[in-house]
Write a structure and sequence with these properties.
The complex is a heterodimer of chains A (327) and B (296). Chain A is mostly helical and 327 residues long. Chain A is 75% helix and 1% strand. Chain A is flat. Classes of the chains: A mainly alpha (327), B mainly alpha (296). The interface between A and B is large, with 121 and 107 residues.
Chain lengths: 327, 296
């Protein structure tokens, strides 16, 4: 997908790096020699094209057909009708908005929380390594088990930790009948988002921590000697330095969270307006057997991802060209 | 003490400095304490899950929560089949198979590719790198249906080796990026020196490149292992009974037998354990891998 879209854009950045790369003098323009250099690359390339690109091409083709697997005889070409349906069917359209909301909300909140945690962990204190390990644990739980944990152990209205903890807390003040909301049915999208934020904040924290620790200590010291206060140093030194890392976190987070299936599938099974596009596509083809429609929705996801990915590649390519110049 | 060593004006400056240092030290103690509290609070749900997995079912489902309930291994015993439910061993073995073999295949494909992208660079190597990356940005759902149809028509449905192939393609781009950056760290001068000394390619790879790249290769393997172990969507769509993986089994623990909280927690802990172990071992490399080598 983004292959054809992205390569022309990144090649200007790539070209000078390519020229600067250390290269052995070729003994003549021998073709065999060129292929000897390329050969190690080919198995990986061919394998990837076969397993990831070909299925997508097939998806594009299927998206132009009216194809329900329950009535295979009536399969027919219907041009853009499936795409029309993706944007006119209220439930499909809603899942487009749900995807955007969920992704944007989770990414923004987890980046902000991740930044705060990274700043907290950037200084030396006793047991820093241990606290860091505690903080990244949510990210290391298997996504399904984390989602199951939120659903049953935390959100459950009768014995979940959230309501249980609240009952215990109000009990200290003699309140016998505290509010006991049913989190998942009262605020389904927020419930899914909270679980995802909990899982993704550590990732953002680790990226930003790497960014903080690559600040130039001399520059910070110089600013301190010049009388800059902590807030000024944060605004004028740390934040500009972190910009790339923030962008990287936002864009990688978006790419992973747009595709999220586990949390939606586990916590709400797509009910109550939480069905995002991946879940809807899964349902459209796996349960409704609408192959053409599911494929069209899949292509829409890809187009959306290309928009995000184009920015992502530009950011990564700027980091990458720095590295290539350094080499 | 200061009066002995410093001229008249100095003591106030020194005292001022000492006060700043003391204030700074007090502040960092407070912030350290805050970090501890935040860290424990953030991890609390996971810790609570661990604790609940050692409670009896009756103690697990109480309101308010019972923190000090007696500990028992019942949840784990039931999970491992003592309760007459489905045995978790076949799914766990399937997950091990899928993760280990796909990781091995990734290494076999990615190592030569990374070599061609870092040590003996092909022309336009940055473009090739971005091609690998762009395949990672293709959402899984966009190719799911053709993959499913292919598996169905070739009899590969519910076959763990089909998942192995898909997981290999899923992890290959990340592995190429990570290993490219690790191999690029091998100084070219050392390689050239070895060649001048008459070392042939296999010797150079084994004696010069491998020792420098080994930690990076290990980290890459761990990340591939984690991703394969965690994957749900492919496994859910493409496997049924015999090739079911641990995450799919985990979702069925709840639906087939009703909800047993302690057992669910025990199951979650068991399934997460390999990933937690691998992740703690490769904390730094994990981010580096996920950010495709862009953060060092």
């Amino acid at each position: 997908m983004s292959t054809s879209v992205s390569t022309p854009e990144v090649s200007p950045a790539g070209a000078p790096a390519d020229a600067a790369a250390p290269r052995k003098a070729r003994k003549g323009p021998g073709r065999a020699r060129v292929w000897a250099t390329r050969a190690p690359l080919l198995p990986a390339l061919i394998f990837l094209i076969a397993v990831t690109q070909l299925p997508f091409v097939a998806t594009v083709v299927i998206s132009f057909f009216d194809w329900n697997s329950l009535s295979p005889d009536s399969r027919s070409f219907n041009a853009f009708a499936n795409y029309g349906e993706v944007f006119s069917d209220p439930s499909l359209r809603d899942s487009v908005f749900t995807t955007v909301w969920l992704t944007a909300g989770v990414v923004i909140v987890s980046v902000v929380l991740g930044l705060l945690l990274a700043l907290l962990l950037d200084r030396a204190f006793i047991g820093r390594g241990f606290v860091r390990t505690l903080l990244i644990t949510p990210f290391l739980l298997v996504p399904v088990s984390a989602a199951l944990m939120w659903k049953h152990l935390l959100y459950n209205p009768e014995y979940g930790l959230l309501n249980g903890g609240w009952a215990w807390f109000t009990g200290l003040f003699g309140v016998d009948t505290p509010a006991q909301p049913d989190w998942i049915s009262d605020m389904p999208l927020a419930a899914v988002a909270a679980a995802l934020i909990w899982q993704w904040t550590p990732f953002m924290m680790l990226i930003l921590l790497a960014g903080l620790q690559s600040r130039s200590a001399e520059q910070m010291e110089a600013a301190r000697l010049d009388g800059a206060n902590a807030w000024q140093m944060f605004c004028y030194l740390t934040l500009p330095h972190l910009r790339r890392y923030l962008e990287l976190g936002v864009l990688l987070g978006s790419i992973y969270i747009v595709q999220n299936f586990d949390a939606v599938f586990t916590i709400t099974a797509g009910g109550l307006g939480t069905a995002n596009l991946p879940y809807t596509i899964y349902q459209t083809f796996y349960q409704a057997h609408e192959y053409g429609l599911a494929s069209a929705a899949g292509v829409v996801v890809v187009i959306g991802t290309i928009v995000v990915a184009t920015f992502a590649l530009r950011v990564v390519s700027s980091l990458f060209s720095e590295e290539a110049n350094r080499a | 003490m200061t009066a002995l060593t410093a001229p008249q004006a100095a003591p106030t400056v020194r005292a001022e400095h000492a006060r700043t240092v003391r204030r700074g030290r007090r502040r960092s103690t407070v912030l350290g304490l805050v970090a501890w509290i935040v860290g424990i609070a953030f991890c609390a749900p996971a810790l609570w899950m661990l604790l609940t997995s050692f409670h009896s079912e009756a103690d697990a489902a109480t309101n308010p929560p019972s923190l000090g309930a007696p500990l028992t291994l019942d949840g784990y015993r039931v999970f491992f089949g003592a309760g007459g439910g489905a045995s978790p061993w076949p799914p766990l073995i399937n997950s091990v198979t899928a993760s280990v073999f796909s990781t091995l295949f990734v290494l076999v494909l990615a190592l030569p590719a990374a070599y061609a992208l870092s040590i003996r660079r092909v022309e336009k190597w940055t473009d090739v790198m971005f091609f690998f990356l762009s395949t990672k940005m293709l959402p899984v759902v966009a190719g799911l249906l053709p993959v499913y149809l292919f598996a169905k028509n070739t009899g590969m449905l519910d076959n763990i080796w089909f998942l192995v192939i898909l997981y290999t393609s899923m992890n290959l781009p990340i592995a190429v990026w990570m290993m490219q950056s690790f191999l690029a760290d091998v100084p070219v001068s050392i390689i050239e020196a070895a060649q001048v000394d008459g070392a042939r390619l296999p010797t150079v790879l084994a004696r010069v490149v491998a020792p420098v790249a080994a930690p990076g290769i290990a980290a890459t393997s761990l990340i591939c292992f984690i991703f394969s172990w965690n994957e749900l969507l492919f496994a859910r769509v493409l496997t049924g009974v015999t090739a079911q993986t641990a995450p799919v089994f985990l979702t069925s623990v709840v639906t087939s037998q009703g909800l047993f909280l302690a057992q669910l927690c025990a199951a979650s802990v068991v399934v997460s354990l390999p990933v937690l172990a691998a992740g703690f071992a490769a904390q730094d490399k994990l981010v580096q891998g996920l950010s495709l080598g862009a953060v060092k």
